[in-house]
Amino acid sequence: xxxxxILIPAFNEEEPLPVxxxxxxxxxxxxxxxxxxxxxxxxxxxxxxxxxxxxTASVALEGGAEVVSCETRGYGSACLAGIEALKADPxxxxxxxxxxxxxxxxxxxxxxxxxxxxxxxxxxxxxxxxQRGSLTPVQRFGNAxxxxxxxxxxxxxxxxLGPFRLARWEALMSLKMSDPNFGWTVEMxxxxxxxxxxxxxxxxxxxxxxxxxxKISGQLSGSVKAGAKILWTIGREWAEERYASRRxxxxxx
Length: 253
Prior knowledge:
Layout: E1 2-10, H1 17-37, E2 40-49, H2 56-62, E3 66-69, H3 75-86, E4 93-96, H4 108-112, E5 121-125, H5 137-154, E6 165-168, H6 169-175, H7 184-194, E7 199-203, H8 220-252
Parallel strand pairs: 1-2, 1-4, 2-3, 5-7
Antiparallel strand pairs: 4-6, 5-6
Helix pairs in contact: 5-8, 7-8
């Protein structure tokens, strides 16, 4: 039986997190038989408390999740802390999803499907099925621009940098992820392209967050910082790819 663990970074999400976990646990109970028929089981649900000043950690525990503390702020830092906590007993596949209730757990089956065809990374694209108001115009523009740059730089056709995604553990370890904040998702996609991993993209539903304001898209400064970091990350990975190609060509000569 192959195990899928779920990692949820969370910073001050005490309001939406209980509903997110409730939906996830209901989904796990309801779909366990069907998952088992396909050779899958949903294992650990890990919430990484990213230095919250509210009751995020408490409500996570009450909701049935394990909690890992990460005081170093940043989405990527929280993901890295969660990955480190799982290394002693790693899953076959790790799922990343947000704490705010925008991701729909029912789409886990959709995300798992490409793994049966050999995919190593599966990205949930929100573009086609996002509910009205769930993606801001700035987010849509930024995603479209970033994905076009990924295509120009690495020849991959993707439509979103969506946070709801699955990665085979061995493939994820091969990427040597390092970004501590806004560049996490695009770093993963750029590195996967550079390493010629089998990447699939599927459409997933996306809802307005259940409560509170997004720390990125809900604030102008956050959007600007995120956009700058995403563009910088693509540029860095492109430059490293070019440098590696020149070194390889020089060695062959």
